[in-house]
């Protein structure tokens, strides 16, 4: 298994899968990465199977470099927050970024 760990705490993040009300958590990984680039490179190198965001590997899936397994199991989606300093009027550039990011995430995170 190829997993993630926190660079700040060293904590390993478990892989969580759900199917028909059942949850399976896999806490052990044989190799670990602390960023998505390293994680994907480990997967592409054949070091094992792992769980990551679809948007991170979509191009590799489309090219046939990676394949999905356990397709009928789902993973928990991480929340996304956009934070900016309070003001009476939202900067137009910030508004454009928020709108674009929202559309991008909706289009690229569905299963």
TrEMBL record:
InterPro entries: LysR-type_TF_proteobact-type, LysR_subst-bd. It comes from the Bacteria. SUPFAM superfamilies: Periplasmic binding protein-like II (SSF53850). Residues 15-104 form the LysR substrate-binding domain. It holds the Pfam family LysR_substrate. Gene3D superfamilies: Periplasmic binding protein-like II (3.40.190.10). Belongs to the LysR transcriptional regulatory family. This is LysR substrate-binding domain-containing protein.
């Amino acid at each position: 298994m190829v997993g993630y760990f926190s660079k700040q705490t060293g904590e390993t993040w478990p892989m969580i899968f759900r199917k028909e009300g059942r949850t399976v958590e896999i806490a052990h990984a044989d190799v670990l990465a602390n960023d998505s680039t390293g994680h994907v490179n480990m997967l592409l190198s054949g070091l094992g199977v792992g769980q990551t965001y679809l948007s991170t590997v979509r191009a590799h899936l489309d090219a046939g470099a990676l394949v999905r397994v356990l397709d009928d199991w789902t993973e928990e989606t991480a929340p996304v927050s956009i934070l900016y300093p309070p003001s009476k009027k939202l900067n137009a550039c910030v508004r454009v970024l928020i709108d674009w990011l929202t559309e991008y995430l909706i289009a690229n995170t569905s299963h």
